Amino acid sequence: MPLLLGDVVPDFTADTTTGPISFHDWIGDDWAFFFSHPGDFTPVCTTEMGRTSQLSAEFEQRGVKPIGLSTDSVEEHMRWIDDVNETQNTTLRFPIVADPDLKIARLYDMIHPTQSETAAVRSVFIIDNMKKLRLTMTYPMRVGRNFDEILRTVDALQAGDRHQIATPADWRPGDEVIIPPSIDDVAAKGLFPQGWTTHRPYLRTTHVQD
Predict the structure, then answer these.
(1) Is 45 an active-site residue?
(2) What pLDDT is stored for residue 94 in this prediction?
(3) pTM of structure
(4) Which of 28, 41, 96, 174 could cross-link to 68 by cystine, CB 3.0-4.6 Å?
């Protein structure tokens, strides 16, 4: 069965570069950014691992724990981290899961046979503190991820949870948000005392403060 938005993500145990983990226990009360790579010592993956490390404070501010995966061993990961740190000018501290038998990659549908039978595509899973899948993206092997978009979507998901709102196209924190049609005007008065603009009966926008 494919993993769908809102599903509790599969738990697993694995060796990582920071020691053995049980995935659900490792997430704890935080959110997780779980992302896969085709392989160690590859150019695009090296830049992505480095960028994740460089953004560690941004992830921490949002209560999000990054965790990577590729279908290589812990020993290979540890050697690769030295390259990541040197070439990307960072110090990588988040765990990288070892998955040489492809067990986790197959559990999370990271193996796309038309791309490779043994290497994971660039999957992204944003998982909340209830262990539920909130967002997924899949990039081809030769296209690096947009980390601005990853952080933006985390911001949008968390703002939606806090304020019962939706976010429009290209939304950034501080921009207007949308009051969902499922909230009628009577309920909206209690939730949004600052008021709103009605563009159409189904389209009402407002600002919220965090």
Answers:
(1) yes
(2) 98
(3) 0.94
(4) 96
